[in-house]
Amino acid sequence: MDLTQRIAYIRAMTTLDLNNPPANEPSLKNLAGMTRRELGAALSDVFGLEEKKTRMRASQLWRWIYQAGVKEFADMTDISKEMRNDLAKHFTLARPEVIERQVSTDGTRKYLLRMGPGIEVECVFIPGVGRAGALCVSSQVGCTLNCTFCHTGTQNLVRNLTAFEIIAQVLAVKDDLEEWPSDREDRNLSNIVFMGMGEPLYNLDHVANAIDVISDGEGISLSRRRITVSTSGVVPEMARLGEETSAMLAISLHATNDALRDELVPINRKYPLTELLDACRNYPGASNARRITFEYVMLKGVNDTDAEAQALVRLLKGIPAKINLIPFNPWPGAPYECSSWGRIEAFADIVNRAGYASPIRTPRGRDISAACGQLKSDSVKKRASERRREAAIS
Ligand code: SAH
Ligand code: SF4
């Protein structure tokens, strides 16, 4: 490879359109992950039926895909054999490839899924959280923000995930948990949290479309009240999140003054605490029945004094809030340590006495690096090594 070719190659590897992922269209279009509108359009493109018939057919397929969870058109028993064959000629219901599946001693399951070449994402199922169990999904590969305590923050953004790819995480995990049909009484997956890789409010259109699909009553049917979106504080998008999704809001707070938050959560320099808390006060639908969760990672000697617990209580005055204290989950090279249990309990006590629910989040899946802030895929590393390999060959 000469220099010009090498530059062109490196450019091709690094120039990515964040909202329009590189076309990687297999010959068969995948329907499992589409929104209702996309599903209707895909059917109409192929079969050219009139609008009403397309809508009816889309509804029928929708229930098979998202309510029954079938993976073969042949299993759609109320559709004529001829139609099923036609569908299989044009479409697929494939799931993303599960590259790795790890099960922690505490039952937490971590998955590494491959969405396309170089696009690998992690999601984590945590049993015994929420009503039955919570799935933590990723919204981006990597993250543009650099919170100093977060492992994902050390991975550059590769790109936004599409709604399809967010929904595909839910489908793949439901397959693994054998959670079909979606309306079964004993379901283990009852909650979704957008707390995996990435900042969901930098990808709100796709996140909102994914929530529409996940909460659809004729499909996966998870209540919007059991879907929580966590943000580091992208203030201008918060109202739209509430209006368009009715999802529960979680804020990664972690500090009670701007100087410290500027350091820990650098987006604070753009949207400081007063703006963030105002946006919380105005969050659509927030009430005592629908409280905002404030996440606070416990960092030894950094943000864990009694005075900071008192400051936290003052700061949240007037906001329907609950506080989630997260013991810091270490990762290789992390510049922090977790506060001691005694310190965390003393901190929780002050917050509790002020009338706030302040559960200490038990670290889950630490043995498989599945805990908060430990997620990081090899997507970037792989690309760098591929580049090196290419350079070595030329
Ligand atoms: N980007 C979004 C959502 C993903 S992070 C956000 O920042 O809110 C999900 C949660 O994990 C956030 O509250 C984040 O602050 C927390 N977190 C990140 N790294 C962590 C670590 N090492 N230990 C504990 N919690 C961490
Ligand atoms: Fe990104 Fe959230 Fe990690 Fe901050 S905490 S780097 S916003 S994923």
Structural features, described:
With 394 residues, this protein is of the alpha/beta class. It has two domains: 11-92, Orthogonal Bundle (DNA polymerase, domain 1), CATH 1.10.150; 97-384, Aldolase class I (TIM Barrel). Helix content is 37%, strand content 16%. The protein has twelve helices and 13 strands. The chain has helices spanning 3-14, 36-47, 51-68, 81-90, 163-177, 204-215, 235-245, 258-264, 273-281, 306-315, 341-353, 379-393, and strands spanning 29-30, 91-92, 97-103, 109-116, 119-127, 133-136, 140-141, 159-160, 191-194, 227-231, 248-252, 292-298, 321-327. Strands 3-4-5-6-9-10-11-12-13 form a nine-stranded mixed sheet, covered by helices on one side. A two-stranded parallel ribbon has the order 1-2. It has a two-stranded antiparallel ribbon with strand order 7-8. A hairpin with a 5-residue loop joins strand 5 and strand 6 (133-136). Helix 5 runs parallel beside helix 6 (204-215), helix 7 (235-245) packs parallel to helix 9 and helix 10 (306-315) runs parallel beside helix 11 (341-353). The longest helix is centred in the first third of the chain and has 18 residues, at 51-68. It is elongated and about 70 Å long. The N and C termini lie close together (5 Å). The model is unreliable at 1-25 and 381-394 (pLDDT under 50). Bound molecules: S-adenosyl-L-homocysteine and iron/sulfur cluster. Residues 149-150, 195, 199, 230-232, 252, 295, 297, 326, 328-329, 372-373 line the site of S-adenosyl-L-homocysteine. Iron/sulfur cluster is lined by residues 143, 145-147, 150, 152-153, 198-199, 232, 252.
